[in-house]
Amino acid sequence: MTDAEERNSEGISSYGRRKKVVRKETRLGLSHGKDEDFGKWYSEVLVNSEMIGYYDISGCYIIRHWAVVIWDIMKEFFDKEIEEMEVEKCMFPLFVTSAVLQKEKTHVAGFEPEVAWVTKAGKSDLDVDLAIRPTSETVIYPYFSKWIRNHHDLPMKVNQWCNVVRWEFSNPMPFIRSREFYWQEGHTAFATKEEADAEVSEILELYRQIYEEFLAVPVIKGKKSELEKFAGALYTCSIEAFIPNTGRGIQGATSHCLGQNFSAKEFFDITFQNEKRRRTVFGRIPGPTIGVMVMVHGDDKGLVLPPKVASQQVIVIPVPYRDANTQEIFDACAATVKTLRKAGIRANVDKRDYHTPGWKYSYWEMKGVPLRIEIGPKDLTNNQVRAVRRDNGAKMDLSMVSLVEQVKELLDKIQESLFDSAKQRRDACIQVARTWDEFVEALGQKKLILAPWCDEEEVEKDVKERTKGDTGAAKTLCTPFDQPEMHEGTKCFASGKLAKKWSYWGRSY
């Protein structure tokens, strides 16, 4: 019997022949398939993989270590990049008075239904009602007006990572639609619009890198329509992701140019001597980030984590059987982990002796660890390990002599493969629609629709109205910066007027 056959006879038997028993006893495995019931699958994956815990307040969730590490890795990258841009760290208070919140009425109107208020301290009514920030423009910009006195104070750039609260009344969904969520928000002030425009673009590119190079999620960079832009902004740029299983787009991150809207005297009076109003700009990466990654890569076994953001990139599992020297195998596993860690690879060993190897395979597949290494007695004899990829299940034997180099190469391949596969699935869902009938047909097929548009707000509102249904209305997602050629005489798919641009449309979260 070969080493692989012996491994299968001992380890995989509990995962294969006794699969149903193991799942019943340990609650491993998912009761809903990704294509069967996406919503239940998504919730089950997050809980079973220990990314979240449900809290006793609807729409609020406990974010557990497995997810927090992903945030930390993204945060470390982003903080390092914006430090090079001379952005300063800050932490502003959670509360804002009603008087200040109402100063920028156009901005507040977009959040007003979701603002949570504090009206009591103990049993006593507060003299002034306090809002819990739904976003921080009205918290931060009054202090920009105090700090900016002359041109030497510009540009002013601050960034904070914080929790915000929006009392979402729609069906809550962890990471995607929650009442409290963690995000990054940067706020800056410049003397000229040209500087602000450049900052919008630079920050948006950092967001693209987070999604595509870390989370392996393909995104589209573009500009929001006037109807969909951030309330109070001059314009909003975004990166848009797409979930093929649900046929819905999702706003991955945004970067806004606020123009002079928040610096005007009637609002927060951000000026300096001998000059008029200042341009402001900010960007933010929101809570849905992790949820998008789970939706795009996850499968019927659970999470599939890209190596760059995985808390554990490699899990080492001892496979002792028959009369093998168990201690020798465990020592080899520990030595392997030590070698990998020394090379900067996040690795650990599952030393639990009260679970079979097969159970451990299922457990770590559920948690999405990119690479599994198995070590049995014949592996020791042959000075090798068995490696198994989480993304495609491919198995291979790796020599211990060049283990670090081979593992690094495998992790790079997994990262690249996840992005390529996700992009292929996303691109297969893109449908060009030049007429209303083509648009409706593509929408019914859950496509990401690219259509020529006249760029008129009333037409956009009409599209929303005409596509209302139980699953929500269609809307513009963004106008991509990378515009297809617009032939002379091209008509808008919805109005029949001359088209001015190509825009992505679809249903969204």
TrEMBL record:
GO terms for cellular component: aminoacyl-tRNA synthetase multienzyme complex; cytoplasm. Residues 70-292 form the Aminoacyl-transfer RNA synthetases class-II family profile domain. SUPFAM superfamilies: C-terminal domain of ProRS, Class II aaRS ABD-related, Class II aaRS and biotin synthetases. Pfam families: HGTP_anticodon, ProRS-C_1, tRNA-synt_2b. It catalyses: tRNA(Pro) + L-proline + ATP = L-prolyl-tRNA(Pro) + AMP + diphosphate. GO terms for biological process: prolyl-tRNA aminoacylation. GO terms for molecular function: ATP binding; proline-tRNA ligase activity. Keywords: Aminoacyl-tRNA synthetase, ATP-binding, Ligase, Nucleotide-binding, Protein biosynthesis. Its EC number is 6.1.1.15. It is an enzyme of class 6 (ligase). HAMAP family: Pro_tRNA_synth_type3 (MF_01571). NCBIfam families: proS_fam_I (TIGR00408). This is Proline--tRNA ligase. It comes from Acer saccharum (Sugar maple).
